[in-house]
Write a structure and sequence with these properties.
The complex is a heterodimer of chains A (249) and B (290). Chain A has 249 residues and is an alpha/beta fold. Chain A contains ten helices and ten strands. The mean pLDDT of chain A is 90. Helix content of chain B is 77%, strand content 0%. Classes of the chains: A alpha/beta (249), B mainly alpha (290). The A-B interface holds A 51, 53, 56-59, 79-80, 82-83, 86-87, 89, 91, 93, 95-96, 105-106, 109-110, 155, 158-159, 162 and B 105-109, 175, 177-178, 180-188, 191, 195-196, 199-200.
Chain lengths: 249, 290
Amino acid sequence: MEKIIEIKNLNVKAGKKEILKDVKLNIYRNKINTIVGPSGGGKSTLLRCLNRLTELEPNFEIRGEILFNGKELREYSDIEVRRQIGMVFQRPNPFPMSIYDNVAFGVRLQGNVKKEKLDEMVRTSLEEAGLWDEVKDDLKRSAFTLSGGQQQRLCIARALVLRPEILMMDEPTSSLDPAAKAKVEDLMLDLKEKYTVVLVTHDIIQARKVSDYTAMIFNGKIVATGEGRDLLEESSSDSVKSFLGSVMA
Amino acid sequence: MKVISNDERASVTWKNIKTRRGKDGAARALGYLALLVMFGILASIFGYIMRGGATHITIQMLTTVGNGSTGGLLNAIVGTWLLVGVGLVFSLPPGILGALYFVQRKSMTRMASIMRMFTDVLTSVPSIVIGLFGYLVLVIRFNMGFSLTAGGMALGVMMLPYILRVSELSMKDVSKEQVANAYALGADDIQVATRIYIPQAIAGVLSGILLAISIAAGETAQLLYTASWNNSFTSGFLHSRVAYLTYVVWYGIDQPGQSAHNLAFVAALILILTVTALIVISKYVNYKRR
């Protein structure tokens, strides 16, 4: 498996609170890399380190090394990193504008693009996110008229339009109903053909369904890593067992 | 442990309910009383100004110039708006930029909190002090003389904290997730400001501007020191003295003769109606946003 990101000895502190401790983790290309763990364990912070959103927090102290395609993340500009490492957040949060404008947002930030080109990019992204057929007749409609599941897929399309190498998803289905959730999970499996997916979830069943490579994070520490489902079935560590026990109960 | 019978419990509960109802009633009565007092004061001011002003207002007053005790009010009406306009030129850009600075990521820094405190202090500096400062610094030191520019700048100092704080409050309502999302899509600070914060907070920003205008339109003290008065229109525009409505209220009422008093009342009426209209518009703008 080819590594796209290597995290070495990553430590993150917010004020005096240690959020991540000596995290060492690889992210593999064209796989679904899943980070599971209980709430408050540092999963989201780990994601936000990868696209440097942590830099928006005034009191975060970040030490350690993150290599993206073999090069230290800090050597890229923050904007460049964020274009190449897209992110979908926990709750669907479209901008208060039309479906089309939502998807086009990221492209327009980079300057003017010809309308035909932009139309094409919007269409491709919506297709990849599995939303095109549902919205193609009315792209000028406000994004808020979509259902929660559709809004989340719109947010995926909005991230994909920049053609990122990596798509990070921070508990993308936690606010969706079971049917919408299943759609997003199926979508992840399709997306890994073209993109590297990093999924954060506390849903073990979801991780079992989609994960190629899993890391378990507990109180800011990676406590176990492993391929596919093996890790999620059984583990030697007590904390992993107790976490699995609590979510499976 | 003492065993409480069901009857005892019921009687205690009932007593509780009675005292609560009593307290509730008293609090409500006090609330209504306070409302009545407030409304009464407002209504008597309105009524008094209306009676003094509405009966004497004439077309001629609104279309001719005057000297504050005789003639019309046209120069004062135009002058008031000019002063407010110049005030806006000096307060709007720093107000909006300051609000953006406060809500964006730097807002947690010590520098920002010190600046925020100074903004609050600025709100409570008495207008006469701003006037004195304007006179000594702008009129004398910078040799501007009594002028539209000096008056407008003195008003701008007054307007700035209102625009800044109201804008900041409405920008704070913008969802943090949307902001993070915009950054995650590769937006820089300026793009986040122009594409997320300002469009989403525009109604709040506008109502802050309207509030600042309505406060500035009713100011007198700092203008006496900086804009002085002009019996006609501002001939040299930015460099000449300028007339304004509050001056007429302040000056006219002090003069002998009914006509000067009438003029003062009409000026007060125009002011009060303008301010009310601005506040109603700003409420409407805010209401439309929701």
